[in-house]
Amino acid sequence: MKIILCNDVVNLGEEGDVVVVKDGYARNYLLPTGQAVLCNKANLAIVASRAAKIEKRKAEKRAASASLKEKLDATTVTLVVNAGESGKLFGSVTSQMVQENLAKQGIEVERKKIEVPTHAIKMTGTYTITVHLYESELSHVKLVIESVEQVKERERAAQKAAAEAAKAAEKAAEEAQKASEAAAEAATPATEEN
């Protein structure tokens, strides 16, 4: 069946495109949801009259996609999840979890545009997530998955390092105090002899 798309449809086309799809897909999904209209002279004329507006919207989408790509490429998503000692997760990391983390960082992306390797990640580690942007443009986001135990261990190590640094600073301050007292004592007898 030949139809005209009213909206962008993933893996099919953009608004205003004339495409051929299977009859059932058109009748049962695209036409009832308003994503497309039948391709006939009247509908072609309507689309032709709106061609300038459609092109303007496409240009805006391309510009928004380019700025979003820059943000996403510079973003690292870190998820802290429960995992066993071997790094195997209790559950899995899905595109919804990635979307929620990106939303917390102020980046809005549709969940269906986020492609998680093997559809669900089940081990801790570093991964690359693909985000489909406008047209065929892709962005790659770094995903770091850590277990709760790894985070606690890192915090303990940081606290231990901070405590050691504080002790070292305290010791250095004591030595500086002793050195200044020794210098003051050494200077005091010299002035009495004069």
What can you see in these coordinates?
The protein has 194 residues and is of the alpha+beta class. Among the domains are: 2-49, Ribosomal protein L9, N-terminal domain (Ribosomal Protein L9, domain 1, 3-Layer(aba) Sandwich), CATH 3.40.5; 70-150, Ribosomal protein L9, C-terminal domain (Ribosomal Protein L9, domain 2, Roll). Helix content is 49%, strand content 23%. The strands form 3 sheets. The protein has a 4-stranded mixed sheet. Strands 2-1-3 form a 3-stranded antiparallel sheet, covered by helices on one side. Strand 8 (125-132) and strand 9 (138-147) form a beta hairpin. It is elongated. It starts with a strand and ends with a helix. The model has no long low-confidence stretch (mean pLDDT 84).
